[in-house]
Write a structure and sequence with these properties.
Order of helices and strands: EEEHEEHEHHHEHEHEEE
GO molecular function, one term: ATP binding
Structural class: alpha/beta
CATH superfamily of the largest domain: P-loop containing nucleotide triphosphate hydrolases
CATH class of the largest domain: Alpha Beta
CATH topology of the largest domain: Rossmann fold
CATH architecture of the largest domain: 3-Layer(aba) Sandwich
InterPro entries: AAA+_ATPase (IPR003593), ABC_transporter-like_ATP-bd (IPR003439), ABC_transpr_LolD-like (IPR015854), MacB-like_ATP-bd (IPR017911), P-loop_NTPase (IPR027417)
Shape: globular
Number of domains: 2
Helix content: 25-40%
Protein name: ABC transporter ATP-binding protein
Keywords: ATP-binding, Nucleotide-binding, Transport
Length: 234
């Protein structure tokens, strides 16, 4: 398998409080990797470093052979608008925009014409099962609908890697399963790599492999666990 993303000795602290203590891991192209562990173990910090949202204090983040952590903020932002897609726990949709306009936003920022961007956005909303809320604003949608719109926005540029940070943490079980089922289906259809942060075993069960963090380090007992194939597997 091809390694698409790597962390090498990644260290990150918030003031005097360490969050990551030398994390090293490889992410294979096309896989869904779950990063699990208890609250406060550094999962979200690791995801933010891998996605170029923040820089590690030391160590390296490498994407397709090139350093991410040494890029300028502008270049890391371009990476997140193109090769990377990010899905947060609370969706972070723009409240004043319709679902279709929210999904079209990354395309517009990349220079796509408004009409084309809307057409592509509508197709993605249909693809993830919420085409009927295209003209609704976030406040008019359920939590599950909002999160699927946010997922469509993360996928609309057809990124190579999607980073999902507790994507079902604010949803009930049924809505969470709908979001995860759609995400896994699209990822496998497009060979999209997914880095999925969660503290829930049920959510990790949708992944192909699991890495466990404990106190900011990779727990060797959880290194590279291949999850059993089932209804969520390939």
């Amino acid at each position: 398998m091809t390694i698409v993303l790597q962390a090498r000795g990644v260290v990150r602290a918030y003031g005097a409080t360490p969050a990551l203590r030398g994390v090293t891991l490889d992410v294979e192209e096309g896989e869904i990797l779950a990063i699990t562990g208890p609250s406060g173990c550094g999962k979200s910090t690791l995801l933010h470093c891998l996605a170029g949202i923040m820089r590690p204090d030391s160590g390296e983040v490498v994407y397709r052979g090139a350093r991410v952590d040494t890029l300028s903020e502008a270049r890391r932002s371009r990476l997140r608008r193109g090769d990377f897609g990010v899905l947060f726990q609370f969706g972070q949709l723009v409240a004043e925009l319709s679902a279709a306009d929210n999904v079209a936003l990354p395309l517009l920022l990349a220079g796509t014409g408004r009409r084309e961007a809307r057409t592509v956005a509508l197709a993605w909303l249909e693809r993830v099962g919420v085409g009927d809320v295209a003209d609704s604003r976030p406040g008019e949608m359920s939590g599950g609908q909002q999160q699927r719109c946010a997922m469509a926005r993360a996928l609309v540029t057809e990124p190579r890697v999607v980073f999902a940070d507790e994507p079902t943490g604010a949803l009930d079980t049924l809505a969470g399963e709908q979001v995860l089922t759609q995400l896994v289906r699209v990822a496998h259809e497009q060979r999209t790599t997914v880095v999925l942060v969660t503290h829930e075993a049920r959510v990790a069960g949708y992944a192909d492999r699991e890495i466990v963090l404990t106190d900011g380090t990779v727990d060797d007992t959880g290194l590279g666990i291949a999850l059993p194939a089932g209804r969520h597997g390939r």
